[in-house]
Specification:
The structure holds two protein chains of two kinds. By secondary structure, chain A is α+β, with helices and mostly antiparallel strands. Chain A has two domains: 220 residues, QueA-like; 98 residues, Beta Barrel (Thrombin, subunit H). Helix content of chain A is 20%, strand content 23%. A nine-stranded mixed β-sheet of chain A has the order 2-1-15-14-12-3-10-11-13. The radius of gyration of chain A is 20 Å and the shape is globular. The two termini of chain A are 29 Å apart. In chain A, 50% of the residues are buried. Chain B starts with 7 loop residues before the first helix and ends with a helix. Chain B contains nine helices and seven strands; from the N terminus they run αβαβαβαβαβαβααβα. Chain B has a single domain, classed as Rossmann fold (3-Layer(aba) Sandwich). In chain B, strands 3-2-1-4-5-6-7 form a seven-stranded parallel β-sheet, with helices on both faces. Chain B is of the alpha/beta class. Classes of the chains: A alpha+beta, B alpha/beta. Chains A and B meet through α2, α3, α5 and β13 of A and β3, α4 and α5 of B.
């Protein structure tokens, strides 16, 4: 949450031992905890909602007749991955994750109809359209489909990662413990510590755990104009069981705690359709300081710095002053930032959203 | 992906007045029915795995088969589809650590979150089979890698999602060699005994989570693997893989499944 907070440069061996800063948004009270303390921090009748998507190896090295390019898939196709599916993607120029994205050269400009070839074995894609808002944002159509396409993507793709890490990630580093359909292009990392033993302990104590699927997109491109568009519209699916769990929790005045900012966007976005109901949609909602939370009361998330869109979202949960002092505490106490870093939970003492 | 790609059979389950985009997360007719379930079967290009894949698809499951050889796998998938089954094939070696998350990711992309997995692929080790004193350490390690670590890694990558959803079924294909000591079957038998114990331990750890673990000894079947192990056996006395597949599919659909159980071949027919 501040420049003084050093990033975690590699995944923890033991995610459950991740530090957790508990923030009372009203009093500004802070407590140093561990992720493993969550069963004590939450109360029977509270509801945790997690994002159950798996993470694709979304970075693909490609060649075009205009030069080399790195493609970062920005999400899954809106529909099934069939032959006509369009994959949103962001183009990067030469270089690799080891450089800061803002230091990388611009990609060669691609136009509608241009072909990108990936690796040996001949996977290729056509540029179907280029966004009017940024020429680095394109829609691609691959020349394969189904099992053949997915196998090839998994063979050629690498996890999207940034220069603060000390080495190349493997695919297993970017999966949450309960990951399922691979809709995310960056890991919804707030749930990293929620391994099966911790989930069981939470449930044993009467905390409900429900899930939704939200296609977490790219967090940064290094291009200010493009970054201003993030997060792009993202696919969300809320199952009926989760709608019921939310209703039950609201009725009993339990607290709904989102695990990760993607869950906040997904739930608040779908709740805006009023009432919250099951189904699939594109979430366009952007959440900042003025947002009045409809269904979410609390948030378990990483430590986010001012200037990130995630920090804007945090201000819907706690006043800026409380967040700033929490950040100063975290920096002094040696908390680590970024996707493999420590966690905060912003937790009101009572349910606050209207439901 | 997954739910959005409903098969016609899946659609039949739902009220017709619902917007197709909203058909997600609802409960199925029976907690044990294979219809509309997503199932991963390893070693699915031949023998019991192929027969079980076909049988589960016939019952309406969305099936993903894995195998090392692409050609036989494609043929099997095409056969199942020709019979109007929902099947997909992924080429993968169960002994390769790097293949685990690609298989789970691609499988869930194709058929949705996995409801069941059948850990069927296994290796005999070098044939003709040989006594332990003639078994190379590296050969034993390789058998354990494929028959024990492979299933462990795959199940580990999926059970978290099953625990979250509060349901799931993991079936390990075992062997009589896991409980009886037969000369020359040491490497294979040890790996299957360990697989049984792995699933048993998991069932204890995840008791009350809704995730079930089961070991099944399919008995002797007339398969290529059987011929490799016992080239001189009388094939006419052996069960066919498709008969056994029907019994295992019945078992997977049984509402009397007890987690942590090991079913010997003698009980397979009557269990479900």
């Amino acid at each position: 949450m501040s420049a003084a907070l050093p990033p975690a440069v590699w995944p923890h061996a033991s995610a459950a031992a991740t530090r957790l800063l508990q923030i009372d948004p009203r009093s500004g009270g802070l407590r140093d905890r561990l992720a493993n303390d969550l069963p004590e921090i939450l109360r029977p009748g509270d509801l945790l909602v997690v994002n159950d998507v798996g993470t694709l190896p979304a970075s693909l090295a490609g060649t075009t007749r205009r030069g080399p390019v790195e493609i970062r898939l920005a999400g899954p196709p809106e529909e099934d991955a069939g032959p006509r599916s369009l994959w949103p993607a962001v183009l990067f120029g030469a270089g690799s994750w080891r450089q800061r994205t803002e230091d990388r050269p611009a990609p060669p400009p691609l136009h509608r109809g241009d072909r990108v070839v990936f690796g040996r074995g001949g996977l290729s894609a056509r540029v179907v359209s280029v966004s009017k808002r940024s020429e680095r944002l394109v829609d691609l159509r691959f020349d394969r489909e189904g099992a053949e396409l997915w196998s090839t993507l998994y063979r050629l793709g690498r996890p999207v990662q940034y220069s603060h890490l000390c080495g190349p990630l493997d695919l297993w580093h970017v999966q949450t413990p309960y990951a399922s359909r691979p809709w995310a292009v960056e890991m919804p990392s707030a749930g990293r510590a929620l391994r099966p033993p911790l989930l069981r302990e939470l449930r044993r104590r009467g905390v409900e755990v429900a899930s939704l699927s939200h296609a977490a997109g790219l967090s940064s491109t290094g291009d200010a104009d493009l970054d201003a568009l993030l997060p792009l519209p993202e696919k969300t699916e809320v199952p009926g069981a989760t709608v019921e769990a939310v209703a039950r929790t609201k009725k009993a005045r339990g607290r709904l705690v989102a695990v990760g900012t993607t869950v906040v966007r997904a739930l608040e976005g779908r709740a805006a359709l009023r009432p919250l109901r099951l189904g699939q949609s594109l979430t366009r909602l952007r959440i900042g300081p003025g947002h009045v939370l409809r269904v979410v009361d609390g948030l378990l998330t990483g430590l986010h710095a001012p200037g990130e869109s995630h920090f804007e979202l945090l201000q819907a949960f706690a006043p800026r002053g409380v967040l700033d002092s929490a950040l100063r505490h975290a920096a002094a106490a040696g908390y680590l930032g970024h996707e493999f870093g420590d966690l905060v939970v912003i937790l009101p003492t009572r349910a606050t959203s209207r439901g | 992906m997954g739910h959005a790609g409903d098969s016609p059979a899946r659609r039949d389950l739902h009220a017709v007045d619902e917007d197709p985009g909203d058909r997600v997360g609802e409960e199925l007719a029976s907690p044990v029915e294979m219809r509309n379930r997503s199932v991963l079967v390893t070693g699915g290009s031949r023998g019991l795995g192929a027969a079980l894949g076909a049988e589960l698809a016939r019952r309406g499951a969305r099936v993903v088969l894995t195998a090392r050889g692409g050609k036989a796998l494609r043929r099997k998938v095409a056969e199942i589809r020709a019979a109007e089954g929902d099947a997909h094939g992924l080429v993968a070696d169960q002994g390769d650590k790097a293949s685990v998350y690609p298989v789970v990711g691609a499988a869930t992309a194709l058929v949705g979150p996995l409801d069941a997995m059948v850990l069927n692929a296994s290796s005999l080790g070098p044939t003709p089979l040989r006594e332990l004193s003639e078994t190379e350490c590296e050969d034993l390690a390789r058998v354990l890698e494929v028959n024990l670590l492979g299933p462990f890694r795959l199940a580990r990558a999926v059970v978290g999602s099953m625990v979250l959803r509060g349901r799931g079924l993991v079936v390990g294909i075992s062997s009589n060699a896991a409980v009886e000591a037969y000369p020359a079957w040491g490497a294979y038998g040890v790996s299957k005994a360990a697989l049984d114990h792995l699933l048993h331990t998991w069932s204890v750890e995840l008791r009350d989570t809704g995730v079930l673990f089961l070991s099944v000894d399919p008995g002797e079947m007339d398969t290529a693997m059987h011929a490799e192990a016992m080239p001189d056996a009388d094939r006419s006395a052996l069960a066919s893989a498709s008969e056994v597949a029907v019994r295992i599919a019945d078992l997977m659909e049984s509402d009397r499944l007890a987690s942590g159980v090991r079913l010997p071949a003698s009980r397979l027919g009557s269990a479900a």
